[in-house]
From TrEMBL:
GO molecular function, one term: oxidoreductase activity
The UniProt record lists the keyword NAD: no
UniProt cross-references to PANTHER family, sorted A to Z: OXIDOREDUCTASE EPHD-RELATED, RETINOL DEHYDROGENASE-RELATED
Similarity comment: family membership: Belongs to the short-chain dehydrogenases/reductases (SDR) family.
Segments passing through the bilayer: none
Coiled-coil region(s): none
Signal peptide per UniProt: none
Protein known as: Short-subunit dehydrogenase
Keywords: Oxidoreductase
Classification via InterPro entries: NAD(P)-bd_dom_sf (IPR036291), Sc_DH/Rdtase_CS (IPR020904), SDR_fam (IPR002347)
Protein origin, superkingdom: Bacteria
Entries under PROSITE patterns matching the protein: ADH_SHORT (PS00061)
């Protein structure tokens, strides 16, 4: 009997880093459950199937507990253990915090934090019981900087970066590894969706999503604790550890403040 292919869940997989992570999984022998909150996930799944992978597509709002439960149920119906969870779904939002629509700001928190850790809790519990599994969480170097004009997003990524290391330590003797991928600005739909195309960071040259995904996938497979994608981002991350918070906030303001300055 042929050995079953391992199974990976990839969230935020319709475009960008998430799609490229799913692509790498398919190319490296994984079957997939891919999820996103948009119809494009079906198109992405069809492309991934062309690589020979079995792919289940789930369109669900992973900012909600119900959406996460929907994804978990879809994976459970396959009757196979989840060997790798690539928790990549995330949202951004630009502009000054008091100028943001609070419902949109909360959606960033619910997607990046609440939905992410709930999914990890559900899948991670199964992995620990089985004594094996890999978890890749997409954090960000933004988590190292107070994010003036991107305050909620950076705050969520500070949480995720810290959470990843804590969870890794808790699971160090269980056979389950936790890896945090920390990209810098990447060429995806992120900045358009976050209403940040009128900012210096929105206009600047960005890292290639496939390169970022490769760094994360390789680190996950090697069981590493973290990876910062790109040498410029590595330098920025190192600098953030020795620079006063007020200085970092002012630096971030210069990158993320919309054209036209203060209201």
């Amino acid at each position: 009997m042929a050995q079953a292919r391992p199974l990976a869940i990839v969230t935020g997989a319709s475009t960008g880093i998430g799609y490229d992570l799913a692509l790498l999984c398919a190319e490296n022998g994984f079957d997939l459950v891919v999820a996103a909150d948009e119809p494009g996930i079906a198109t992405a799944a069809e492309a991934l199937r062309s690589l020979g992978a079995q792919v289940e597509a789930v369109e669900a709002d992973l900012a909600t507990l119900d959406g996460v439960d929907q994804l978990y149920a879809a994976a459970h119906r396959l009757g196979r253990p989840v060997d790798a969870l690539l928790a990549n779904a995330g949202r951004g939002l630009g502009a000054g915090f008091l100028d943001q629509d609070f419902a949109r700001a909360r959606h960033v928190v619910d997607t990046n934090v609440t939905g992410t850790i709930y999914l990890i809790h559900r899948i991670g519990t199964d992995m620990r019981a089985r004594g094996e599994g890999r978890i890749l969480i997409t954090g960000s170097i933004a988590g190292f900087m107070p994010g003036a004009f991107q305050a909620v997003y950076n705050g969520t990524k500070a949480f995720i970066d810290s959470f990843s290391w804590a969870l890794r330590n808790e699971l160090k003797d269980t056979g389950v590894t936790v890896t945090c991928l920390m990209p810098g600005p990447t060429q995806t739909d992120f900045f358009a969706r976050a209403d940040m195309t009128d900012t210096p960071v929105g206009r600047q040259q960005k890292d290639d999503a496939a390169m970022v995904a490769r760094a994360g996938f390789d680190a996950m497979m090697a069981g590493e604790g973290q990876v910062v994608a790109g040498w410029k981002n590595k330098a920025q991350a190192l600098m953030a550890h020795v620079t006063p918070a007020g200085t970092l906030a002012e630096m971030h303001r210069k990158m993320a403040e919309p054209d036209g300055g203060d209201r």
